[in-house]
Amino acid sequence: MLISYAFRRILGAIPTLLIIITLAFFMMRIAPGGPFDGERRLPAEVEANVLAAYDLDKPVHEQYFIYLGRLLKGDLGPSFRARDFTVTEMIAAGLPVSIRLGLSAITIALLLGTTLGVFAALRQNRPSDFSVMAIAMVGITIPTFVTAPLLTLLFGVYGVNIFGLEFSLPVGGWNNGALPNMILPVTVLALPQVAIISRLVRGSMVEVLRSNYVRTARAKGLSSLRVVTRHALRAALLPLVSYLGPAIAGLATGSLIVEQIFGLPGIGRYFVQGALNRDYTLVLGVVIFYASFVILLNLIADILYRVLDPRVRYDR
Amino acid sequence: MTPVLPAERAGLVESAATVRGRSLWVDARRRLMRNKAAVASMIVLGSVTLLAVFAPLFSPYDFDAIDFSLVQCAPAWWPDDSVLCRADGAHWFGMDAVGRDLFVRTLYGARVSLAVGLVATCVSLLIGIAYGATAGYLGGSVDNLMMRFVDILYSLPFIFFVIILMVIFDRNFILLFVAIGAVEWLTMARIVRGQTLSVKEQEFIEAARAAGVGPWGIISRHVIPNVVGPVIVYVTLTIPAVILAESFLSFLGLGIREPMTSWGVLIAEGANSLQTSPWTLIFPATFMAVTLFCFNFIGDGLRDALDPKDR
Amino acid sequence: MAEPILSARDFHVRFATPDGEVHAVRNVSFDVQPGECLGVVGESGSGKSQLFLAALGLLAANGRTAGGMLYRGQDLTKLAARDLNRIRGARITMIFQDPLTSLTPHMQIGAQIVEALRAHRKMTRAEAVRGAIESLELVRIPEARRRMRQYPHELSGGMRQRVMIAMATACGPDLLIADEPTTALDVTVQAQILDIMRDLKTKLKTSIVLISHDMGVIAAMADRVQVMRHGEFVESGTVNEVFYAPRHEYTRMLLDAIPRLDAPAGPVDAPRDGSAGHRTLLDVRDLKVHFPIRVEGWIPRYKALRAVDGVSFTLGEGETLGVVGESGCGKSTLARAVLALLPSTAGVVLWCGQELGQADREALRRLRKDIQIVFQDPLASLDPRMTIGQSIAEPLRALVPDLGRETVVARVRESMLRVGLDPAWINRYPHELSGGQNQRVGIARAMIVEPKLVVCDEAVSALDVSIQAQIVDLILSLQQRFAMSMIFVSHDLAVVRRVSHRVMVLYLGRIVEIADRDAIYKDPRHPYTRALISAVLLPDPAKSRVRLRAPLPAELPSPIDTRSALAYLPSKRIDDPDAVQYVPRLIEVGPGHLVAEHDPQ
User: Fold this and answer.
1) pLDDT by residue (tens digit) across A29-67?
2) CB atoms within 10 A of CB B187
3) Predicted model pTM
4) Is B155–A298 a contact, with Cβ atoms under 8 angstroms apart?
């Protein structure tokens, strides 16, 4: 039964999350320096007050439990650096940006990557296969912080002449998610995933096309289109479902760079700043948020896998 | 067909000349050599390594020597004349924004990046093999537990943790290796475990047990030689991933510290001055891209050579 | 003579491989007449499958054909894809050897048949569904309507093959090509499938091309026969001509090599110690091997899979016990439990009076020197990265560790000679040898420690018929020389008959009959034994065609369901899948002849 499986997995996710929170918490505390070191020295009582207000004067393990307690109530605590904001507010502000970015990127990556992969597999070992795979190789090996400035230069600064129309893309700023501002960042973010997905799908498709049941489908006199779409595609895309989790992880990593370069007010930028500034609560908040998201996603991917592959549906 | 010899030809037993067999490794090597892309990659990679190792011999300049008069100028063959370096010295790649010779810095960057790649991969190899082989061989609930742990770690935003680590230990060079290696060992462990499990199911393992071979014997003589193949393939694919990770960290400002340099640092610097001096980005980026390509081609070639199915 | 359905003229199939060109089919010409069954028989590598894959345009990408393959005058190899698709699946259809991997796993079987119908005929969905159900009923699948919604992995092997046949005959083809359709199936299931095929041939007037390496199957089904070897036809004729008066020496060799149930059983050399009192070496008492199977649900529950469920027998010096049964009967599990490769759940195994279950390391080591095993798949049981010399030496090195290197090498060579391998090959690797040669390596490895008991687990089942005969001869001669006992596990009743002194028949982990060899084959008492024996197809057209009509039992039911084991004693059965059921006793019906209780048929 799928439901019992899902239930068990959700139960199993809770200790996972707990471990992650604990690890992150103590790692941040180990770091030398505190959140207020960069500022001018405050007089002693003021400093003591500030520390007390943030519970920093208590022993570390006590701080831990206070934090957990607040967490259960959904309170991620105040940001240590941006005094007027709580972490929750900051995440809420940055979340829509990152989500729009990430969602667009993964959609493009999936669609384009799958198409390219299937195309290459159908033309296996012919020139079109090699060229697609070569482009994929490029996408994988060139890091985002190289493609970003390159594309910016090409399309943003110098501009491009298409069909007699001069146009150039904005090189930074979010502008409330206006489409022209989204194009470059999403492209840069999606490229490596397009490459990886197309390689993955191609490999899987090649193998499925060699299988016995595809041979049977052909022997039944079905058209090539039908053989590919009804019989081969579904099995070939199965590994893609398992890859969803790592794909999102890759996008998150990439978004750190992209948000930095293009100046987008997303969560990734908060994270890097927070890590550098020892803003404990912010960093923790982002980590927890992200980890829960990934765990949820893995669960969904797992269930999806079982739905799609009837063989796995029956618990072995 | 085999000549069926009568069992009593004792004399033949001693004097028979033996025929050399053709092991699977030999077969694989032959297939690898036929793969033109892989062979070309090996040559290019070898050249880059030589250049990196013997870098000082190739240029009279030090990698951190600053020449204030020649800041940010292009090499002699750059199309735009206005930014050329005019000195007599051979600054083949031009100078960077601070006034250092880019050619030497690129080569030194090669040293560091390649070193990080190798060392971090070794770290991940050691941890991953030990962990994965144990889990795969012991199987059952121990394996379950160990792999659950890996699953937990996998779902972590691990690069985030590396960042935290780097911040904590203040960009210690050694720790960079360890941190990156600690990220990659997960996949290595998974691969080793998967291979171990599938080897364990093979009939020849059962045959070895029936022959009275103990667990250590089975692991060392049967499991490991059969697991080595995919591990090697994965190692060649891990190195570029590590180099990328290092460059990523350097870009964020968390990687190699001044005055040492790596490709990541150079690329970050180059990306900053892309509009004014594109050559500062192009050279290190090209070197890194080419090196990563080579590793990928070699890895693909190894994979096809060791496990030949129709490409 | 009417116009042939399929005509091949000077047909060639070549493959371009990195190691050079492989000429799989050479200059083949034949006709298939309407309404006939053409049998194509050959061993592995003969090219028989490739020939027909090429005819239907199903070759791998690196294959090329030359010559003509005409269907009603049209050359199939020269047709455009769209025209070929009109013929494939509708006028000429093909079924394959492994029905599990040949059916799309994520589509319901009903949908797969409906798809075939709608691709070739203008039908509404409802009509196609009705057509599909009809075709399922034609292949005698019970509860056809319910089965339409099932997935391939939910059906047994025999059912799946029937589904494939239904799918292939749904459009009423002129020609059905069957590539080793029953090779992966149990012998009783095989008989059912072949019967269905013959039935369809008459009803739908479909011609059949039956490709097989099994001469018995060919004798039972074919009207005309082509014998294929190394890509060429070496003999052709009617089935009677080929089987009763073969002209080519290869055909004769093939027919001679097959062990036959109706030939007089050669005397299996009596145990050395012929007279009474040859001592009992192995004593197995009520052996049980159960595996826990996880059952779906909120709370983890486990049910027992009773692979071996109370087996007792003894084995004397120099004696061979044949163990037969179909898939799932537990014979391989039994073999491994005797060798202590698997832990047993209950029962006792005594070797030379010593109990094995409690053995410590030292005792286990001595045990391994006395009992060895030869596996089914010669290539899979050898480590591909070790030379055959190293593989053969392994038991010696592990069990007699104090031997010097020179001695070991000498013993390896000796062992190789004994099994008919050239000692010069000591440094060769398994992938350089053929299947038969690799099996000799397996035997050499088992024999090198001069064991007192050798377990052969389907040791010849994966080999070609001609090689099978050689290996069986080898095993017999070795047994003679070394006075070994043997447990010979096989599903092939004819081979077991050749080598065994006594035969034990297993069904779902229990003994249903055990007796001397002659008694079992001449006077089988248990209905299951009778079914098994009658299902064996003889390479004799007249006899095997009659046998196809014998009544046959249902397929092997679920082994977790406790009612399954009482399939032959339904009167004592409690109708609850989890209840502890009655255990049928073994009744002595003759000297040394035990039969499990069963209801009269």
Assistant:
1) 666 666 666 555 667 777 677 667 666 666 777 777 777
2) 19
3) 0.83
4) yes
- Say if residues C86 and A221 touch (Cβ distance below 8 Å): yes
Q: What is the pLDDT of residues B257-302, one digit of tens each?
A: 777 788 888 888 887 777 777 778 888 888 888 998 899 888 888 8
Cβ separation C417–B2 shorter than 8 A: no
Partners of residue B203 in chain C, C-beta under 8 Å: 375-377, 380-381
> What is the Cα–Cα distance from C506 to C491, expressed in whole angstroms?
10
* B301 closest CA partner among B39, B15, B64: B39
Contact B285 A294 (CB under 8 A): no
Q: Measure in Å the smallest separation between the Cα of C127 and chain B Cα atoms.
A: 42
Q: What is the pLDDT of residues A226-268, one digit of tens each?
A: 999 999 998 888 888 878 877 887 888 888 888 877 878 888 8
Q: Helices in C179-321 by DSSP H: which ranges?
A: 187-204, 215-221, 239-244, 249-257
For B215, phi then psi, to 5°, come to -55, -40
Residue of B nearest to A153 (CA): B275
Check CB contact under 8 Å for A146 and B285.
yes
Chain C residue numbers with beta carbons less than 8 Å from the beta carbon of A234 are 106
Most C-contacting residue of B195, B200, B203 (CB-CB within 10 A), to test interface: B203
Output Rg (C-alpha) for chain C, integer angstroms: 26
What residues form DSSP beta bridges with C455?
A: C373, C487
Which of B167, B252, B296 lies nearest to residue A256, judging by beta carbons?
Answer: B252
Residue in C375, C387, C424 closest to B203 by CB: C375
Q: Please tell me the distance from the alpha carbon of residue C259 to that of residue C540, in angstroms, as a whole number.
A: 12
What are the pLDDT digits (tens) for C524-536?
999 899 988 888 8
The ipTM is 0.84
Three-state SS letters, A8-74: HHHHHHHHHHHHHHHHHHHHHHHCCCCCCCCCCCCCHHHHHHHHHHCCCCCCHHHHHHHHHHHHHCC
- DSSP string over C505-547: EEETTEEEEEEEHHHHHHS--SHHHHHHHHHPPPS-HHHHHHH
State the chains in contact with A (3 or more Cβ–Cβ pairs under 8 Å). B, C
Q: At what angle do helices A267-277 and A87-122 cross, to 10 degrees?
A: 120
φ/ψ of residue C292, rounded to 5 = -80, 130
Instruction: State whether residue C23 is helix, strand or coil.
Output: strand
Beta carbons within 10 angstroms of residue A273's beta carbon:
15
Contacting residues of C for B21, CB less than 8 Å apart: 387, 425, 427-429, 432
Q: Identify any residues that bridge with C509 across adjacent strands, giving them in sequence order.
A: none
Biggest CA-to-CA distance, chain B = 92
From C58, C64, C70, select the one nearest C31 (Cα to Cα).
Answer: C70
Please identify among residues 97-156 of chain C the ones whose CB lies closer than 8 Å to any CB of chain B.
Answer: none
Answer for the pair B277, B83: CB distance below 8 angstroms, yes or no: yes
Say yes or no: A163 contacts chain C, CB-CB below 8 A.
no
Chain C residue numbers with beta carbons less than 8 Å from the beta carbon of B225 are 383, 385
Is residue C505 predicted with pLDDT exceeding 90? Answer: yes
Among B123, B159, B117, which Cα is nearest to B243's?
B117
Contacts of A219 in chain C (CB under 8 A): 56, 58, 88-89, 93-94
- Asked if C104 lies within 8 A of A221 by C-beta distance, the reply is no
Q: Which of C53, C95, C106 to mutate to test the interface with A (most CBs of A within 10 A)?
A: C106
How far is the C-alpha of C99 from the C-alpha of C113, rounded, in Å?
14
Distances (CA, A) of C334 to C216, C372, C533, C537, C560: 29, 14, 22, 27, 18
